[in-house]
Every structure is written in structure tokens, then in C-alpha cells.
Write a structure and sequence with these properties.
By secondary structure, the chain is an all-alpha fold. It contains ten helices and two strands; from the N terminus they run ααααββαααααα. Helix 5 runs antiparallel to helix 6 and helix 8 packs antiparallel against helix 9. The structure holds zinc ion. Zinc ion binds next to strand 2 and helix 5.
């Protein structure tokens, strides 16, 4: 320990202790806060513009001005931006949006977004034996149900599921 620095510049001494790993910044913070009186702490915070009176400016979304915000853009704009990125005509954006609203899908989960690709949705329905639903989905998405089914007569749910065959 540098006794000379301790005498000449105790602040530098304290900061160097943290820099040298002799004490953690958290521990030094607690030492300082506990040593100071409440008045000292309030004054220190206020001098550094960290007191409540500097808190009047609420942070807002840089896109829409909304206040539902974590960083930069609000949750709504963040969701919209992510969904726009997947809105390529091949993904069920409505399903994604409603699953986000129901906390079944996380914004930014690109891996799971693939599950919302029209073809994957139909395949999942078929895997689950939801043939009527799969047919409806094909109609909605403009896909050919026959492409998904080896045996197009197997509407009763008995047919084998082979996934997407030679999709054009
Ligand atoms: Zn916003």
C-alpha cells in the first residue's frame, strides 16, 4: 500500500485500491455511503444531479414518444420493428403478434420465429393430427395442401405424414 499517496491524495489511493483489485468497487461504495451522514449523501447526490429533482424528464420512445420504454424504443415499437423484419409474406405475422401479446413468443427470438413460417405451421398442424386446421392454413397462406401429404385421400387423419415434398 502506498502510504505516501494515502497522505497526499486519499481519493486516488482509494481508486487505486479498486483498480488493483484490493477491494471491490461495491465494497468501497458501501464504505463511503455508510461513513457519510444522510445529509452528506443527499448533498452528494444532488451535486451530481442524481437526486429526484432532476428526475422530472421522463424518458420516452425515440420512435413514437411512448413511455413504455427500456432503452431507446418502447416495447411496442420494438415489437413492430421485429415483426416487420419477418413480414416477408412467408410468415404468419398475426400469429406471432398474438403469441407475443400472450407471452408465448419473445421479441427477438429469431429461432422460434422460423416456426411461424407458413410451411412450418402447416407441418406442425399435420404432425399434431390437425388435418382440417392444416387445410385451412394452406388456403389462408396460398399453399397447396397436396404438397404436404403423400396420400391426398388421407383426410381422415390416417394417412402418413411425409412433410413437404418437392415444393416448387
Ligand atoms: Zn414507441
Amino acid at each position: 500500500m502506498d502510504a505516501k499517496l494515502f497522505n497526499s491524495d486519499p481519493r486516488d489511493f482509494a481508486i487505486e485500491m479498486v483498480a488493483n483489485g484490493l477491494v471491490s468497487a461495491d465494497h468501497l461504495l458501501m464504505c463511503a455511503l455508510k461513513y457519510m451522514s444522510h445529509d452528506d449523501v443527499r448533498d452528494m447526490l444532488d451535486c451530481n444531479e442524481l437526486s429526484p429533482r432532476f428526475d422530472d424528464e421522463e424518458e420516452t420512445c425515440i420512435d413514437c414518444g411512448g413511455t413504455n420504454i427500456e432503452e431507446g424504443t418502447c416495447t411496442d415499437c420494438e415489437t413492430k420493428e421485429w415483426l416487420d423484419g419477418w413480414d416477408d409474406g412467408e410468415h404468419d405475422i398475426d400469429a406471432m403478434r398474438s403469441d407475443i401479446a400472450n407471452n408465448n413468443l419473445e421479441v427477438g427470438d429469431d429461432e422460434r420465429a422460423e416456426e411461424y413460417e407458413h410451411e412450418n405451421i402447416v407441418r406442425t398442424s399435420l404432425t399434431n393430427g390437425q388435418f382440417t386446421q392444416a387445410k385451412e392454413q394452406c388456403e389462408r397462406y396460398g399453399l397447396d395442401y397436396a404438397d404436404f401429404h403423400e396420400d391426398t385421400d388421407a383426410d381422415d387423419g390416417e394417412g402418413p405424414i411425409v412433410g413437404l415434398m418437392n415444393h416448387p
